[in-house]
Amino acid sequence: MKKTKYFKYILTIVTIILLNISNKVYSQNVDKLYEKIDLFSEVLEKIQNEYVEEIDQAEVMDSAINGALQSLDPYSAYMNQKIFEETQTETAGEFGGLGIEVSMEAGVVIVISPIDDTPASKAGVKAGDYIVRINGEQVQGKTLMEAVNLMRGPVGTSIEITIRRKGLRKAKIIKITREIIEIKSVVSKLVDNKVGYLRLRAFNENSSDQLKKEISKIEKNNKLVGYILDLRNNPGGLLTQAIKISDFFLEDGEIVSTKGRKKRENRKFFAKKGDKINGKPLIVLINKGSASASEIVAGALQDQKRAILLGETTYGKGSVQSIIPLKNRGAIRLTVSKYYLPSGKSISEVGVVPDIKVEEEGEEFLINTATDNQLNYAIDLLIGWNLMNENKQLPLRIGVGIVLLNHKNNIFVGKRIDNPENSWQMPQGGVDQNENFLQAAKRELEEETGIKSVKLIKELDGWFKYDLPKYLLGKLWNGKYRGQKQKWFVMRFLGKPDEINVKTKNPEFFDWKWIELSKLPSIAVHFKIDIYKKIKEQLTSLNLN
After folding, report:
1. CA–CA distance from 238 to each of 38, 208, 294, 333 (Å)?
2. What pLDDT shows up at residue 477?
3. E strands, 201-291, where?
4. Cβ–Cβ contacts within 10 Å for residue 474, how many?
5. CA 37, CA 31: separation in Å to the nearest integer?
6. In the annotation, is 485 catalytic?
7. What pLDDT is stored for residue 216 in this prediction?
8. What is the DSSP letter of 543?
């Protein structure tokens, strides 16, 4: 009994001490906050009394509030009453301006994406462009909202924006005439009576309904081999729409989760049964103008292994903003949570990486036209997949491969010109008419590396086979083969380093190196990893000294 009273006594004392410490820390934090408020008042007073020109204190306060929000991240911002009212017109699907989604980066405005068929898109503005001047006025130093207001104006009036673009040495001036911007979410077409093309330009209130109607129309075609969902230059929009549209192509599984400081911001969203394209092959096109909701859809379909992503790495906007109205009829846009893909990865500042990297080609490139090399690539892939399904008995191409060793028993590998998956490979190739396998191996080695000075160590046992992945079917060897069946030879390099020259007549590689045997499987493209593992096993059992 005495022990119990003693412990209660000690517990009470400890609780009082902790409360005192907590109150002291809280008091210190409050004191520091008031010191900062006093400092801010002092600075404001100095500006009011001593700045070279008279200032509007209300405007200064607005800028200070916005500065506090922008210091958090590029997407949080303050909107006064006028700006708040203007932003509300955007969600209705019609507003005046240039037709670009922008953000702030390093003090200048960056174009997330131009909206299709708008003045900016037609004038040649591209995702990733930096807007450094608006009508000759420097952008740096302005808030995002101030820059946006400079770009807005009466319909029919012109504006000049000065942009900086990667790959261009000089700044480029683009003249644009303002128009009423009508956002039409979905465009669709049937390509070659085989491929369903769905272009989603934005995620607004009726996007899912529009997309559903277009899918229903295309599904009536009996010759359909697959779909292309084009999310390029789609700046995003409503989270609810991203979830609905992802669900169109999934039977089950997680789509996205959000995590924030408050419990209500921690949510997970799942697909419901009912794939609206009935499991047909799906390619999703993405680029650096694909942001936010676009990244959710692309990432979910990739993580759930429902689609192949083709194009360029997306923008990397993986956060949720809430519009919070204020007493002055303005509002703040505040980041309240972040998106996470089914794999658990965050999109923020990283983006979604395509399975197949295909960059835009040429200044004349325009989405959904004859110059659209990314779309053309995707169409070829889908038709190639269909060829494979129709020709399941396609033969394997007969080929050879070379394990080239130096005096340290390190292995020669080259980085391919087409560079799938940033991979390396050992020299390999086909067999010409009237050649035996060893002759073919020596010829391929010389054609790919310039190397002639070699000594044969051993022909490895058996055949080494691999099938091409779906996205390469129909694109290699004139679509005649489904993969390769190879004989491999181990050779010793006897020459000097200057004999190695990968810049041959028809180059296979643009770089080369020697690697240790232990690294062999990991450097290979994914569909050749099993072959490289078998080669490693046989090499390990050889006496190479």
Report:
1. 41, 11, 10, 14
2. 83
3. 226-230, 254-260, 267-270, 282-286
4. 21
5. 10
6. no
7. 94
8. -
Candidates 443, 458, 428, 431; CA nearest to 525 is 428
Q: Are 158 and 173 in contact (CB under 8 A)?
A: no
Q: How far apart are CA 270 and CA 265, in angstroms?
A: 16
pLDDT given for residue 24 in this prediction: 55
Annotated catalytic residue: which of 292, 294, 319, 423?
A: 292
Mark out the alpha helices in 219-262 (DSSP H runs).
239-247
Contact 485, 465 (CB under 8 A): yes
- Report the alpha-carbon distance of residue 191 to residue 279 in Å, rounded: 19
Q: Look up 32 and say whether it is catalytic.
A: no
Q: What is the DSSP letter of 498?
A: G
DSSP letter string, 387-429: HHHHTTTPPEEEEEEEEEE-TT--EEEEEESS-GGG-EE--EE
pLDDT at 8 over 70: no
Whether the pLDDT of residue 14 is over 60: the answer is no
Q: Is the pLDDT of residue 485 over 90?
A: yes
**Token pair 């131009």 in the structure block, residue:** 114
Point out the least confidently predicted range of 96-110, 297-311, 386-400, 412-426. Answer: 386-400
Beta-carbon contacts of 423 under 8 Å, excluding residues fewer than 6 positions away, are 415, 416, 523, 524, 525
Nearest-CA neighbor of 226 among 420, 476, 474?
474
Residue range 505-518, pLDDT digits in tens: 888 899 999 999 98
pLDDT of residue 383: 81
Checking 179-183 for CB contacts under 8 A at 24+ apart, the result is 179/96, 179/97, 179/99, 179/118, 179/119, 179/155, 180/94, 180/95, 180/96, 180/155, 181/94, 181/95, 181/96, 181/97, 181/98, 181/99, 181/115, 181/118, 182/93, 182/94, 183/93, 183/94, 183/115
Angle between helices 239-247 and 293-303 (to 10 degrees): 30
What gap in Å lies between CA 3 and CA 67, rounded to an integer? 59
pLDDT at 499: 94
Whether the CB-CB separation of 443 and 432 falls below 8 Å is answered with yes
Of the residues 126, 244, 288, 317, which is catalytic?
317
Out of 303, 372, 423, 487, the active site residue is 303
Cα separation, 515 vs 517, in Å, equals: 7
173 residue type, one letter: I
* pLDDT > 50? residue 338: yes
Looking at the DSSP bridge assignments, the partners of residue 180 are 96
* Catalytic-residue membership of 292: yes
Contact of 311 with 374, CB cutoff 8 Å: yes
Q: Is the dihedral of CA 167, 288, 224, 385 positive or negative?
A: positive
